[in-house]
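From the shared-data thread, chain only:
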Amino acid sequence: MSRIKIYIGQDAMGSDLVEALRSRGITVITALDAGLIARSDDQQLAFASEHGCVLYTFNVSDFYRLYMERAGAGREYAGTILAQPQRFSVGEPLRRILRLRAATTAASMRNQVGKLAGRLHESHRPGGHSGQPAPGAKEGSGGPAQRSDR
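Structure, as tokens:
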């Protein structure tokens, strides 16, 4: 089973989270490591995909839009994890990423966008049932599309 490798975009590359993930043996590449600071979102997503990394970002609206554009064009990529900035201590996103990583393979994240929200991991694939809340929907509002992360 191939484990998820993570590319952390420039907006989310706090050194404490990066260090905590790496100390647990997780492959992490940051925008700084890749020399992609101030590069476009598309360039960052392309880099992550070329290196088999799921992109972790706080830039929810831009990367969700980019995901929908890629999905509509049939362009594949390694996946995206969307998170809210400054909402949790390093421990909370670390636990959520570790739970997601334990329950999900790199292959199952392919062409998928996941959202770390509350106690839930929501996911969305085009053409299928969406776990992504509709625009303007209250986060964590429940419903059958959401699944708890294990």
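The chain has one domain: 5-125.
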